[in-house]
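Contributing: when you submit paired examples, paste them exactly as shown. First protein:
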Amino acid sequence: MKCKITRNAAKVIKRELEKEENAELKLRVVVTHAHGDHAHYGLDLDKPTDNDVVVSTDKEIDVILAKDEPMLDGVKIDYLYFPQEGFVITNPSKGNHGDH
C-alpha cells in the first residue's frame, strides 16, 4: 500500500505527533464514507492493530492504513491554506481528485 504526504501537510502532522501526549501514536487515514467509485477520508491518531499495515512515507511519517480497505491504497494527504485552511485527502490512483 502507498501513501503520499505533501510538504504542507507534513509540517502540520509532525507538529501534532511531536506533542508529548501523542508520543505512542501514528497517523491513521480512514474511509469515512464510500459510494460508487470513490471515498471520503478522515485522519486520526491511533495505534496499529493486526488488521492494519504501517506505511512509511518520504516525509518520515508512518501512516496506518486498514489492510482490507482498497480505497486507502494510494491516498494523498495535503494541507491547504486557501480558500479554506485544512487537510484535503484524495486518492488520485483511484480517480478521486477531490470533493464533488
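Second protein:
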Amino acid sequence: MNPLLGSLQPYPFERLRALTRQITPNAAFEPISLGIGEPKHPTPSVVTDALIANLTGLASYPATSGEPALRTAIAQWITRRYGVAIDETRQVLPVNGSREALFALAQTVIDPTREGATVVCPNPFYQIYEGAALLAGARVAFVNSDPTRQFAADWASVPESTWARTQLLYVCSPGNPTGAVMPLAEWKTLFELSDQHGFVIASDECYSEIYFRDVPPLGSLEAAVQLGRSDFRRLVAFTSLSKRSNVPGMRSGFVAGDADILKAFLLYRTYHGSAMSPTVQAASIAAWNDEAHVIANREQYRQKFAQVTPLLATVMDVSLPDAGFYLWADVSNIARGDDDVAFALALIAQYNVSVLPGSLLAREVDGVNPGAGRIRLALVSEASDCLEAAKRIVAYANSLRSA
C-alpha cells in the first residue's frame, strides 16, 4: 500500500458523521441540512435537453483534451466573463469537475525529490488541497485567515524559508468557507512571490458565479491581465459547472492558464484516464453558452441570503459574504468555550438542523484553529427550508443565552 495514504486525515463530513453517531435528533422537527455544500436548485432544461439529445456520444471514446467545440465554448465564456482573450488550443482543458483537477494538478507539478517540497494553502481550506499535497509527497504549510481583514490570508506571516521551498500555492476565491474575494492587490503580492520563488498558483474559482454585489468577483486570469501577465505564467485557474449550473453530478469544469503547465497536465491526464464523456461535453457546451439560467440561479441565492442573514445576525456575528453560498458565522459568543462542535451537535439533537463546525475545516497552526468558534451554513436548499433552519438556530441560540 502507498504509505502516504496514512498521512491523510478524515474528511470533515466523515468526522461529523462519527461525532453524530450517538445523537438522536429531535423527531418533533423535520431534518434540515445546511452542512454539505451540494447545490439543490433544479438542473436547467438547457443542460438536461442537451444531455438527452446527445446520448449517442456514450458509444465513443472521448479525447482527453476535449472536443474543439467545448474548448471554444469555454474560451468564449472566459472572454465574456472576464474580458480576457485566451488560446483555446493551448490554454484551456476540460476536466471532470474542479475537485479531481485540483488533486491531479499537484501530482503533475510537484517534484517530491526536491528537499522540503512544500504546498501552501489558506486555513480554513478545502480538504482536497491537503490530500493532494500529501499524496504528491509534499508537506503542507497552512496560512491562517484574518477575520479582521475580511478573512484575507496572512501571506506576510509565511517565512521566506517556506516560500523558498514552495512548489504549489492553492488559493480559493471566492473562498470556501469564508466567501471572501481576493482583491487585485493581493493577487499582485502572490504573483510577485511566484516570480521570486517559481511556484505554481492553483486558483480555485468554483463559486465565482454566485455573488451579491453588482460587480462580479475578480478572477485570477482577469487579475493577471490587469497586471500585465497575459501569458498567465505559473497560473492555473479552476472553474466548475456544479455550482454555476446546478449540475454537481455531471462532473464538468475546466482549467485555464499557463500553456506549458497545461501541456504537462494533459500528458498526466492522458495516462490517468480522465477524459470527459462526449455526452457530458455536449451538455457542458450548452451550459457555458447560456447565461439566463445562471442569472436566475444567482437571484435565488440572493433572495435566500437576504432573508436568512439578517435573522441570524440577531443572535450571532454573521454578515453577507462577497460571494459563494456559505455563511461563515461566529458563534463564539454563544457557544460555551468557543466549542463549535458542541454547538453543532446540540443543534442537531434539539432542533434537527445540521451545520458544519468550523474547526473541522481548518488545522491548528501556532496554537490557533481559525475555524474554532465558527460554523459554516450552506444555503443550498429551498428558501423555505433555509428560513426555517435559521429560525430554529435563533431559538437555539436564545436558549443558550438564557440558560
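If you have annotations for the second protein, write them as plain sentences, like these:
The two ends are 51 Å apart (CA to CA).
The CA atoms of residues 90 and 263 lie 7 Å apart.
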